[in-house]
């Protein structure tokens, strides 16, 4: 059951990546097409997707009710950043890969893979606990993760301190903040606006995956390999991140009370999700190592099919 659910959640993603690879190889996409996709996703589709997702999956009551559980996710994210920075320093991750590496360790692909998988594994009653991780992961990605990648620009001149509001407030983060205003202010969104943003936002996943397929084609499948930095990122994503969450759940039990089994399993599974599908796009925007980012997204997505059953078996023994 667990293996089937994880496989079904991943196979469609792999097929869309394969479609992008095939169409690029057949010459359907011009050289400039991947750059155009990158701009469309980052500036239009992602802000729309995040805005709609927040208002669809959250309410004011849910947001306040879930505030207690945010302790685990916030602490796990903070510890994750500290561990990732420590790994960058110890293993001397090169410029252009640092930001991608840190994001790969800390931030997961929650909404596109985590949500359907979580419902398949634990049912609709796990949705409130999923939202705990989703909110934290979203804020972490666009308030911190995207900035880290933006500042890890190998073409940035040394000593440059020019203030750039666009880097401080990327469009996806603006979409999240605007959604919070509508949510907390209980402001209605006109139906036609909501429908338009939903249609536009729904482009994020397929376009991101097609973009990955194009990059894979340009790089050549033979060049996609498990090098040292990729293996370290996968170690952080699939081992460090869930282990930190498990330790926090047990360590804080005496202070915050026992965590419901479904909540504990949800938080751990989400913490071990594959890398963000938009990592190559973020790397491209910052002139980073796009091939490295693509490598991490592809390998972590494929390996996730194996990680989920193993992790689920471990959770059944622990909780």
UniProtKB/TrEMBL annotation:
InterPro entries reported for this sequence: Mem_transp_PIN-like, Na+/solute_symporter_sf
One cellular component term from this protein's GO annotations in UniProt: plasma membrane
Subcellular localization: Cell membrane
GO biological process, one term: transmembrane transport
Keywords attached to this entry: Cell membrane, Membrane, Transmembrane, Transmembrane helix, Transport
Topology versus the membrane: Multi-pass membrane protein
Gene3D superfamilies reported for this sequence: 1.20.1530.20
Lineage: superkingdom: Bacteria
Entry keyword Disulfide bond: no
Main location: membrane
Family affiliation: Belongs to the auxin efflux carrier (TC 2.A.69) family.
Name this polypeptide is given: Malate permease
Species this chain originates from: Vagococcus penaei
Taxonomic lineage of the native organism: Bacteria, Bacillati, Bacillota, Bacilli, Lactobacillales
């Amino acid at each position: 059951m667990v293996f089937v659910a994880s496989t079904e959640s991943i196979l469609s993603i792999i097929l869309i990546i394969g479609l992008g690879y095939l169409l690029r190889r057949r010459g359907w996409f011009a050289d400039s097409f991947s750059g155009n996709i990158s701009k469309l996703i980052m500036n239009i589709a992602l802000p729309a997707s995040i805005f709609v997702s927040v208002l669809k999956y959250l309410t004011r009551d849910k947001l306040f009710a879930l505030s207690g559980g945010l302790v685990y996710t916030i602490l796990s994210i903070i510890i994750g950043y500290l561990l990732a920075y420590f790994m960058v320093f110890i293993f001397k991750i090169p410029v252009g890969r640092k930001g991608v590496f840190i994001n790969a360790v800390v931030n997961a692909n929650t909404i596109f893979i985590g949500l359907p998988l979580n419902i398949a594994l634990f049912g609709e009653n796990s949705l409130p606990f999923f939202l705990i991780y989703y909110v934290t992961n979203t804020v972490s990605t666009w308030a911190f993760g995207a900035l880290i990648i933006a500042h890890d620009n190998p073409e940035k001149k040394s000593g440059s301190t020019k203030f750039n509001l666009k880097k401080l407030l990327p469009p996806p983060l603006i979409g999240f903040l605007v959604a919070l205003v509508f949510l907390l202010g209980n402001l209605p969104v006109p139906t036609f606006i909501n429908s338009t943003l939903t249609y536009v936002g729904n482009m994020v996943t397929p376009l991101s995956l097609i973009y990955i397929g194009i990059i894979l084609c340009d790089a050549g499948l033979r060049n996609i390999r498990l090098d040292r930095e990729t293996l370290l990122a996968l170690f952080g994503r699939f081992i460090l991140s869930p282990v930190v969450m498990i330790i926090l759940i047990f360590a804080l039990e005496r202070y915050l009370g026992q965590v419901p089994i479904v909540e504990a399993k949800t938080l751990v599974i989400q913490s071990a999700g594959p890398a963000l599908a938009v990592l190559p796009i973020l790397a491209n925007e910052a002139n980073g190592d796009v091939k490295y980012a693509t490598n991490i997204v592809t390998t972590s997505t494929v390996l996730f099919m194996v990680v989920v059953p193993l992790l689920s078996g471990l959770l059944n023994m622990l909780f």
